[in-house]
């Protein structure tokens, strides 16, 4: 198969065009200009807001003028990652695509099908003169990948559609009708230091080799949290042997389940061997607890040079107990959609700096009140330990509506076209849809797309046959949009 033979030809044509235009997050000027020029060349109304979002409007095809107006939506930016040794400048160079069996890939870089394929589908709809559709608005947002900036900045009145179809999903045959909202809660513990006891045994203990993952998509997969595993051991050593803490750290990204954590500690010399034995016993316990999800779990203990200072004992005790008590992982499952995580929290990172220990956590829920409750619960545990806590404003969720009109249309369309039932799902991660609802609360929304794998990495690939199914489904849904009352 050659690229010129890919179907649907118009969608793949515009995908290749999009791949030629540099579009890193926060640097969307070139792709924005491409969209503006495209609209002008096709005689379509176009406007841009202060954030850089672009809206292109197209009148209905003949006989479809009385249908509800549909907003097709995708984001312009892409994650820019490349393999080591690959020479590629994402601000100037085009993405070079190639066919690998049934997959479309890029040469050593991210493909940018997230969400370039959504952009391409919108352009194909706008350019076509042979498809049936009611009035359409095509929304292209900026900076989805690093902060949902465009969706946050979208103002009331910029668009006026009745239905929004988000084209940023990654599993063909699945219709998404909800996502989680989220917020970060940061706790700050004072870390007073006192003179270290003389003649004690100093050691470093580390948790390594965990699977990690996304704190939304993977929070329900029973993966271990390195910060919690380390804390459990340290708390036990404090209670058994009067352990003192010198240094601690673990995790990095707020939206990632931490894979590694370590601490430097001290115990009286008489317990030098006991802490090693206890670690072996503890490791055997947690290996059994996580035998399926953490096959590479490792814990190591090695001697350290004595430190001059240790954390003041009472401050240490309150810190360790607060971390032990704080909730981590799934808190509640959805009552609307079986198997969907509704509310969760992730103990993302622990960092010691400038006389303080700073803990970053993230809470997610598809129901705003539940997310706020989860943030307050996390804050309560930390505040009982003496920390000060701040919860950021965060971003809203999209509560699933199993009775959505556009969902019913999309389900019936998929069933009619392909003879099977699509899966109706929600995700425990953020989509722009939740932010759209804040400004446009009456929008009826659904999200779908072709199958992508390895997104946000140079292994990103798009399953070619699913693009045709996605396109046929989209056109059929547009053909069956109901009359506006």
| Oligomer designation | single chain
Strand content: 25-35%
Separate helix tally: 12
Number of strands: 23
The class by helix and strand makeup works out as alpha+beta
Residues in helix, %? 25-40%
Put the structure in a nutshell.
By secondary structure, the protein is of the alpha+beta class.
What this model shows, in words?
The protein contains twelve helices and 23 strands. With 485 residues, the chain is α+β, with helices and mostly antiparallel strands. The strands form six sheets. It has a six-stranded mixed β-sheet with strand order 1-2-6-3-7-21. Helix 8 packs antiparallel against helix 9. The chain starts with 8 loop residues before the first helix and ends in a 6-residue tail after the last helix. The mean pLDDT is 95.
List keywords for this structure.
485 residues, alpha+beta, six-stranded mixed sheet, five-stranded antiparallel sheet, 23 strands, 27% strand
